[in-house]
């Protein structure tokens, strides 16, 4: 398996623009997680899905952030409108049922100017 | 609620020396505990995990950790550091009835020749 795939790897955008981050989990995994990593706040869980259904979105910072998982092989994290404080590395991870191991993608480094 | 505390944001050792990275956890229920490693510009990779089997857990790259309930600790050790061990290390905890991981703030390991 190719592992968790994220695109793009780097994104530079201007404040106010819409940003869409994409993730393809490992085939057969039931869980998908979105994290944000910054120097100031460390690694934060934003939202996670089980069988394509959002289970916990309490980490989503505000209404500008939204996440979807239309099918078992694809998820998006959207920021609209983006702000400079959204600059961070965003990771997607997936896990199998009762596996208790999350497999991380390489991350998307987002810079909002 | 669960939480982890990693003591020391930076640890420096000489090549060949013992590596000891400290992690203490707090959990109201029996926990699962994890150590992940992050190399520069990469996602997190699982080193080892404790899920209630043997209290001494062996992982990849010669690392091991011991679950000590009386001390609420799960310290990571390696007898002899290698230059390639330089990375950031994260301790994480989850409750047995959830799929969420709570990460510590990370410890950056530097290895000097």
Task: Summarize the model shown.
The complex is a heterodimer of chains A (113) and B (113). By secondary structure, chain A is mainly beta.
Please provide a written account of the structure.
The complex is a heterodimer of chains A (113) and B (113). Chain A is mainly beta. Chain A is 0% helix and 55% strand. Chain A has strands spanning 5-7, 10-13, 19-24, 31-38, 42-50, 53-56, 65-71, 74-79, 88-95, 103-104, 108-112. In chain A, strands 2, 4, 5, 6, 9, 10 and 11 form a seven-stranded mixed beta sheet that branches. Chain A has a four-stranded antiparallel beta sheet with strand order 1-3-8-7, with no helix packed on it. In chain A, a hairpin with a 3-residue loop joins strand 4 (31-38) and strand 5 (42-50). The radius of gyration of chain A is 13 Å and the shape is globular. Chain A starts with a strand and ends with a strand. With 113 residues, chain B is mainly beta. Chain B is globular and about 45 Å long. In chain B, the strands form two sheets. In chain B, strands 2, 4, 5, 9, 10 and 11 form a six-stranded mixed beta sheet that branches. In chain B, strands 1-3-8-7-6 form a five-stranded antiparallel beta sheet, with no helix packed on it.
């Amino acid at each position: 398996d190719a592992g968790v795939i994220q695109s793009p790897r780097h994104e530079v955008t201007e404040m106010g623009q819409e940003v869409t981050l994409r993730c393809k989990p490992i085939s057969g995994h039931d869980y998908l997680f979105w994290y944000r990593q910054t120097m100031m706040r460390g690694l934060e869980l934003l939202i996670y899905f089980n069988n394509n259904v959002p289970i916990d979105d309490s980490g989503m910072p505000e209404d500008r952030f939204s996440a979807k998982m239309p099918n078992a092989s694809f998820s998006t994290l959207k920021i609209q409108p983006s702000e400079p404080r959204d600059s961070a590395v965003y990771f997607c991870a997936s896990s199998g049922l009762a596996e208790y191991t999350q497999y991380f993608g390489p991350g998307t480094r987002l810079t909002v100017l | 609620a669960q939480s982890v505390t990693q003591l020391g944001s930076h640890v420096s050792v000489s090549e060949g020396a013992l590596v000891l990275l400290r992690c203490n956890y707090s959990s109201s229920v029996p926990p699962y505990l994890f150590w992940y490693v992050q190399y520069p510009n990469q996602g997190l990779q699982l080193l080892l995990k404790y899920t209630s089997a043997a209290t001494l857990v062996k992982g990849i790259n010669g690392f091991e950790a011991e679950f000590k309930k009386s001390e609420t600790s799960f310290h990571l050790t390696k007898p002899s550091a290698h230059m390639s061990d330089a990375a950031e290390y994260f301790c994480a905890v989850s409750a047995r009835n959830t799929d969420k991981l709570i990460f510590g703030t990370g410890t950056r390991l530097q290895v000097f020749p």
